[in-house]
Automatic annotation (TrEMBL):
SUPFAM superfamilies referenced in this protein's UniProt entry, alphabetically: Phosphoglucomutase, C-terminal domain, Phosphoglucomutase, first 3 domains
NCBIfam families: PRK09542.1
Cofactor(s) the record lists: Mg(2+)
Segments forming domain Alpha-D-phosphohexomutase alpha/beta/alpha: 10-136, 161-265, 272-384
One Pfam family this sequence matches: PGM_PMM_IV
Entry keywords, A to Z: Isomerase, Magnesium, Metal-binding, Phosphoprotein
Domain Alpha-D-phosphohexomutase C-terminal: 389-464
UniProt protein name: Phosphomannomutase/phosphoglucomutase
Similarity remark: Belongs to the phosphohexose mutase family.
Keyword tRNA-binding: no
InterPro entries per the UniProt record, alphabetical: A-D-PHexomutase_a/b/a-I (IPR005844), A-D-PHexomutase_a/b/a-I/II/III (IPR016055), A-D-PHexomutase_a/b/a-II (IPR005845), A-D-PHexomutase_a/b/a-III (IPR005846), A-D-PHexomutase_C (IPR005843), A-D-PHexomutase_C_sf (IPR036900), Alpha-D-phosphohexomutase_SF (IPR005841)
Length: 468
């Protein structure tokens, strides 16, 4: 009698993520590979499989491939890839795929991000939990039945194709020379940056790359590959100033997110990057004949984003936080671009998927096509004062929300419930959003105002109520 397998600890809303040897093991991965083929009906088709630089990724790639071929799919091994390389491959080759990564999580973690053919995302609402259930069935039965004709395994390197495709979307050949410090955090950007922005595979660009932590090392010996945490940007900020660079770029572990530092060493908010890229994509879409290009933004990006989109003749569509919502809405609306506060950037020309590298290329182009420094260029896109995301760990989240609502749900304030609660002053001076985490006992606050004293006053009062 085998003990019952329950994979709910590692199957999340958007992907699989767990501790290696505990909640994600070779046995589990093999079952997930088989379930992936069964649930998506991929027998007789090609499945793409790759992974990042984590020590467990190569073995997990083989295990997933073994499970998939047992159920009749052919497997094309992409081996070492960034997550946006998987999305590119799923789109360009019109095949479903999976990559092994735990993104910015610590070294003891690994996981699986999956996509259908065309880079259509797989989430809890679009098949992920069915894959979990089927994998649990195989694990609990103790075996995976092999089909009469198992699939074959072959290998393909897509780095050059991926790099050429990105370069076809943003032309950097004629920009002014720029010095760029790139912090790969020992993650996959250490492989993709030289290929896309350097001269290891393609002709050189007017870019001098100063590399930080390009060595692929899933133990993350220098700092966690999570640029959302300010402490992990310190080395990059210092290097930008030290080298007199024009800007700095920081990627997370699987290189699907990119954060930007200006020439003074100050972070440029992801909302500002969203607005900057949106302006470029609106102009390009209009030049191609679109009348009102659509831009997606989540509800906690700066108010400057929809204001700029509308001013430039686009249509801004607001959505809740989460990449599966953004990708679905991108497809539904035919949107040209989408941006999140977490530095995920989505492009119609990239199969509605997110790619940190393409966003970085737009920033390089915008900076290199004019003479102002990035700090001046970014100021236009950051007219308001934001708190950033502030987490409060609470034992009773609903009670905290009730206290805030009792004070702020009043005349002169509009409240909406798209994702958590958003309170907006009718005179436009401030807004804030409170969202409960789906996975942790956290309440997340984002606030913004027309001036710094107002933002501080609103932020501090909300926190006082939340943490009372």
């Amino acid at each position: 009698m085998t003990s019952a397998f329950d994979l709910s600890a590692s199957f999340k809303a958007y992907d699989v993520r767990g501790v290696v040897g505990e909640t994600i093991t070779p046995q589990i991965v093999k079952a997930v590979g088989a379930a992936f083929v069964d649930v998506l009906d991929l027998a007789g088709q090609t499945v793409l499989v790759g992974g990042d630089m984590r020590p467990s990724s190569p073995e997990f790639i083989k295990d997933f491939a073994a499970g998939a071929t047992m159920r009749g799919a052919d497997v094309l091994l992409l081996d070492l890839i960034s997550t946006d390389e998987l999305y590119y491959a799923c789109g360009a080759l019109n095949a479903a795929g999976a990559t092994f990564t735990a993104s910015h999580n610590p070294a003891q973690y690994n996981g699986i991000k999956m996509a259908k053919a065309g880079a259509v995302p797989i989430s809890s609402e679009t098949g992920l939990y069915e894959i979990q259930a089927k994998a649990e069935q195989y694990l609990n039965e103790g075996s995976i039945p092999a089909v009469a004709k198992p699939g074959q395994i072959s290998v393909r390197d897509i780095l050059r194709d991926y790099s050429e495709y990105l370069r076809s979307l943003v032309d950097l050949t004629a920009i002014r020379p720029l010095k760029v410090v790139v912090d790969a955090g020992n993650g996959m950007a250490g492989l993709t940056t030289p290929a896309v922005l350097g001269d290891t595979l393609l002709a050189g660009l007017p870019l001098e790359i100063v590399d930080l932590y390009f060595e692929l090392d899933g133990s993350f010996p220098n700092h966690p590959a999570n640029p959302l945490e300010p402490a992990n940007l310190v080395d990059l900020q210092a290097a930008v100033v030290e080298h007199g660079a024009d800007l700095g770029l920081a990627f997370d572990g699987d290189a699907d997110r990119c954060f930007v530092i200006d020439e003074k060493g100050d972070p440029v908010s992801p909302s500002a990057i969203t607005a900057l890229v949106a302006r470029r994509e609106i102009a390009r879409a209009k030049a191609a004949g679109e009348t009102t290009p659509v831009i997606i933004h989540n509800l906690i990006t700066s108010r400057a984003v929809p204001e700029l989109v509308e001013a430039d003749g686009g249509r801004a569509v607001r959505t809740r936080v989460g990449h599966s919502f953004i990708k679905a809405l991108m497809a539904e609306e035919g949107a040209v671009f989408g941006g999140e506060h977490s530095a995920h950037y989505y492009f119609r020309d990239f199969y509605n998927a997110d790619t940190g590298m393409l966003a970085a290329m737009h920033v390089l182009a915008a900076l290199g096509e004019q003479t102002l420094p990035l700090s001046d260029l970014a100021r236009e896109y950051e007219p308001y004062f934001a708190s950033g995301e502030i987490n409060s760990e609470l034992s009773d989240v609903p009670a905290a929300v009730a206290r805030v609502r009792a004070e702020f749900d009043r005349d002169g304030v509009t409240v909406d419930t798209l994702d958590g609660l958003t309170f907006t002053a009718d005179d436009g001076q401030w807004w804030f959003n409170l969202r409960a985490s789906n996975t942790e006992p956290f309440l997340r606050l984002n606030a913004e105002a027309e001036d710094l004293p107002t933002m501080v006053r609103v932020r501090d009062r909300v926190l006082e109520l939340v943490r009372n």
